[in-house]
Amino acid sequence: MGEGGLTHLAAVASPPAPPKTRRIPASGRRRKPILPRVWHFASFGAPGVLVYLCFVMAPILISFGYSLTNYNPFNPPVKFVGFDNYRLLFTDEQFLTALKVTTVLTLIVVIVPNVLGLGVALLLDRKGRLYNALRSVFFTPVILSSVVVSIVWSRLLDDRGPLDSLLRALGIEHPPGWLSDPDIALYSVASIVSWQMLGFCVVVYLAGLQGVPSELLEAAEIDGAGPLRRFRAVTWPLLAPSLTINTVVLLISAFKTYDYVKVITNGGPGSGATATIAFNVLQTGFDSNHVGYASAMAVLMLVVVAVVTTVVLNFLRRREVDL
Amino acid sequence: MTRAWLRPTVALFVSAVFFVPLYLVLTNVIKQGDLIAKEPASLPLPPTLANIHAVLTRPDGLFWVSLTNSIVVTVLSILVLTVLSAMLGHYLARSGKRWTKVLTLVLLAGLMIPPQVILIPITDVLRVTHLMATLQGLILFNVGYYVPFGVFVFTGFIRGVPVELEEAALLDGASRMQVFWRVVFPLLRPATASVLIFLGVWIWNDFIDPLIILGPSQGTTITTGIYRSIGQYQADLGSVFALMFLATLPVLIFYLALQKQFVKGLTGGATKG
């Protein structure tokens, strides 16, 4: 059983493959290829690689190219401006605000669903119909479109919406402007994203909790460890892979936040209180047509995502190995 | 346990609070239009199907057109994605050359590229190839953008299929393609299921890509249809809620039917990111 639990844990952390896996790359190298390699690539590899290159890699290079120009389709001619766009970014009030908005949003969206998700997973980590049904409740928002989630929450948080009616009924005469107050709107949007992502974290933590061998917990109990101590010494370290998955997935999706901002606040209220970098890229590129400048923003965003994700991933992976 | 009631009570309470927004959708779908704005949280009494009826019979056919577009885009995208990423996954898992490692890394990078970075140039690429504002353009973009996810799910599974199986089939005179589609692919069912489920839900729910690629007037998918209808029909909240419900229904049925597979795929597939 303990063995089974650990195998499951390994399955969560790495591709779910039978133990035979390890041998195959080695034997594959020793063996003569079954068929000529060129043919294998041309028929199996090339179609996928080609679409990927055309629709992802080439556009990134083009984006970088654009970012070095003042390209604006409605205002020719195109001039090469070097790194001017990038330099401009760091003095652009609007971009610096977007950077701050994205950072705050990302921090909230990485921390809140992770913490609450762990709590809910611990709460629901029992067998039985009730707990199964409640798991589904938490998971449902994950399969909803962000547009649907955004519209529902906009209604809920509207100045005359159900939440404010409830608060008024409780005697709060002037409830905060959840979406209309520039100081609060960002936290509202972050809460909405967190609400949708919570179920994802719950499911991943529940899968991780199934991999915690019950003998270990029983042994700790016999040794006199209380529930808190058992959690800290046994459960939490074994949940390391789940934490890694959740954090990386949340990080990447938080950086990309666009849909919610577009539908709920359209970047407002005021001067970009909720405008993320992702939102600004499309706004600048398509609405203001400053393609060159928007591309610089996009390229910078890509670099930030790549660096932060790699650093966080390495940090969390090292924690897993240290077990 | 003396406090056996504590856990279920807390669990129920927390879930109920969490469920409030979903309750709002469900009740307002079957609530009379004028009551939605006045008392959004009340029970839908008397219940009515007028909202759903209104959406289904709109003179501009917004729902049916959007539904057709969404189905065409989602089904074609996930079919092509499954074929291409299974085969590319096979190549990466079986060809032990050093450059496959490089290729794997390049594809891995694709998992964290924000769509915003490629959307601006992609519109130019599509314009040059006359695919801008077409469903084919959107499908091709989806295939390129999601191929890394498919590849990572499939590569892991293909490594678990013994090479000996393929060699035996080849010795029996099957072609490489036959071996893959008749011997290997049927063994990849769990991977195929996760790929189909995940990409299906993502592409169905996608908002930003159809919004930009299909353009402002050139037809809508179900999500962009909802987005536009809140702008145009601000007053008719009943229709908006009904539209949201109908748009979610296919995904919900898909999910309930494949629930087990879904969660397995989530924990298996997500880790490869």
From TrEMBL, chain B:
Pfam families: BPD_transp_1. It is found in: Cell membrane. InterPro entries: MetI-like (IPR000515), MetI-like_sf (IPR035906). GO terms for biological process: transmembrane transport. Residues 67-258 form the ABC transmembrane type-1 domain. One of its GO terms (cellular component) is plasma membrane. PROSITE patterns: ABC_TM1. Belongs to the binding-protein-dependent transport system permease family. This is Carbohydrate ABC transporter permease.
